[in-house]
Amino acid sequence: MSDCISSAESEARLKTRTNLRSKARTKLVAKPITKPITTPIFYASGSPHLGHAYSGFIADTIARFHRLLGEEVVLITGTDENGQKIERTAQAANIDLYDFVTGNSRAFRQLWSDLDLHFDQFIRTTDCDHHKLVTNIWNKLVSSGDIYLGTYKGLYCVECEQFYSHWQLGEGCCPIHHKPVEAVSEPSYLFRLSRYRGKLLEFYQLNPEHIKPSHYQESIIRSLQTETIDDLSISRFNVNWGVPVPGDSEHVVYVWLDALFSYITALEKEGVAEVGLCESGLSEATHVIGKDILQFHCIYWPAFLLAAGLPTAKEIVVHGWWTFGGDKISKSNPATVVKPVDLAKELTVDGLRYGLLRQKPLARDGNFNLSEFKETINSDLSNNLGNLVKRHVTLVNKFYQGSIDCIGHDSLNDSSIALIEESSAAIIQIRAAFSNSDLQLVCHLANKLISSANRYIHLREPWKYGKGNDTENVKETLCIINAVLRTISIIFSPVIPTICKSIRRQLKLSDQNFLWPTSCDLSDVAVEEASTVFERLKSSGGSS
Ligand code: MSP
Fold it and tell me: 323 CA distance to ligand 1 centroid (A)?
């Protein structure tokens, strides 16, 4: 069985820059307003790739949006370190199992740090507190009569850590990894999943927006209505690396049951959960997941929670895959591996996160193409946004020595009123797009507003100050652009935080405690020296 380690021990070993909040770990402080946002916990079986970074950026962007709404957010990630897949990979590499997972877990922590992603909790499933929680949950499910000992026969994909039915396989191979599955017949503890079909259907009828986008919810409802829902094997007999089944050390707990409950281990560590008292802190949670792990999060997970008498998460946001040369980016296909840190060096972190969120709808697959990324990033961040900021700050410095007193609303010209109204409308539309986790739409709407501001400045030609353009007109133009840029620096900050920080600095605005605005308002203008908010990227020449 795997040796669990205490979190104090593991944190001492892992001196990383991950920003763990020093919160009182007092149990039982139920804080209903805390909003947990989670990434999946990543298999510690190799180095992170672009697909993993994508999950991290999405969760971080959603977290930043909720913080702007004034909510208390807990951002959770971690590594999935138990199970047969890890055991075999470490054995094949001839590395001590614990050293193997520690090294890979460290690589994920380092990735988050390199990508400026600050998680509040990083869970390792080999930690003692997590083992303890899984043991408690197991006992709870035994007492509710949801676990029994039987035998399980099935076709298992070790890569997915999942049993498949014949009809789900293509020529005997798993549909995700295209590798042969293994016939397994072993004593096993089973979870009475079949009991929960009706309850799950009822749950989805009562919560029509639980899974986003909605077509994933429809597909889950269809499979609950039409497919056989068998009891689920939740222990493995011939696997040594995992959480021992309480009272039967010949078995380890199925790695997915173990992994899913890591979300609650994290909340217990944050002091917002107490499983013993049926309070999991999950009811406000957003789980960000890839489409390949839909069934685990949308059938097994709510069924486990219902059985344990715990509330389910608020919503599941599903994203599609990044492919490279048409194939899914994956550790098991080295030709597809795109290293996120190298890319962040080339595109900047904001450039990379913007490209990933802007280049494809969240739920669809998209092929990664470096030159297309660079083209979009240059056009949107350097030309459109960067030029607007530079022009504004330069002109305020040139004609008004860096500051302008606020002008009144009453005398505004029609085109100024139109842009202010468009900005106020964008605040509402972009908020709705964030709430629907439609992050590509957020990018489109923000760009549209920036383009309108650029058109406005072009038409009003403030650079012709004193040369045919009257001073009041120039002052009005710069005050309006300033109001739009202030708005942009807030509402676009969940997507491009560093660039927005730089805009706020140049506009002499505080970088602390700003909240989502309700309208675009005029105010006094003050600027620093102009500097470039986004350096144009050099074209790479290649196509991918
Ligand atoms: N360990 C499980 C999750 C347990 S959560 C309780 C797992 N790990 S994983 O490392 O294989 O995948 C983690 C996440 O990365 C998944 O959401 C998966 O969809 C995502 N991605 C892995 N490859 C991807 C792409 N090529 N593109 C986008 N995301 C992909 O599953």
Answer: 13
Does 140 participate in catalysis according to the annotation?
A: no
pLDDT tens, per residue, the chain with 544 residues: 555 665 555 544 433 323 333 333 334 444 446 899 999 999 999 999 999 999 999 999 999 999 999 999 999 999 999 999 899 999 999 999 999 999 999 999 999 999 999 999 999 999 999 999 999 999 999 999 999 999 988 889 988 888 887 777 878 888 888 888 989 899 999 999 999 999 999 999 999 999 999 999 999 999 999 998 999 999 999 788 999 999 999 999 999 999 999 999 999 998 876 665 556 689 999 999 999 999 999 999 999 999 999 999 999 999 999 999 999 999 888 889 899 999 999 999 999 999 999 999 999 999 999 999 999 999 999 999 999 999 999 999 999 999 999 998 888 999 999 999 999 999 999 999 999 999 999 999 999 999 999 999 999 999 998 887 788 999 999 999 999 999 999 999 999 999 999 999 999 999 888 999 999 999 999 999 999 999 999 987 544 4
Does 287 participate in catalysis according to the annotation?
no
Q: 292: Cβ below 6 Å to ligand 1?
A: yes
Q: What are phi and psi of 248, to 5 degrees?
A: -150, 85
Alpha helices for 436-470 (secondary structure H): 439-460
Query: Phi, psi at residue 212, to the nearest 5°?
Result: -120, 140
Complete edge-to-edge strand list for the sheet that includes strand 162-164: 162-164, 147-157, 182-191, 232-233
DSSP bridge partners of 180: 173
What are the backbone angles phi and psi of residue 149, rounded to the nearest 5°?
-90, 130
| H/E run at residue 253 | strand 248-253
57 Cα–ligand 1 center, Å: 13
> How many whole angstroms from 534 Cα to the centroid of ligand 1?
31
Instruction: Tell me how far the alpha carbon of residue 293 lies from the centroid of ligand 1, in angstroms.
Output: 7
Alpha carbon distance 20, 32 (integer Å)? 21
Query: Residues of 155-176 as b/e, b for ≥16 C-beta within 10 angstroms?
Result: bbbbbbbbbbeeeeeeeeebeb
66 is known as an active-site residue = no
- The catalytic residue among 132, 177, 314, 390 is 177
Q: Which atom of ligand 1 is nearest to the CA of 322?
A: 27
∠ CA 239-245-249 to the nearest 5 degrees?
Answer: 65
What is the C-alpha to C-alpha distance for residues 187 and 181, in angstroms, rounded to an integer? 19
Closest ligand 1 atom to 301 CA: 6
The Cα–Cα gap between 324 and 337 comes to 8
Q: Is the pTM of this model over 0.85?
A: yes
Q: SS3 string of 388-407?
A: HHHHHHHHHHHHHCCEECCC
CB of 426 closer than 6 angstroms to any ligand 1 atom? no
DSSP string, 301-326: HHHHHHHTT-PPPSEEEEE--EEETT
Residue nearest to atom 6 of ligand 1 (CA): 260
Q: The tokens of 386 are what?
A: 């960067």
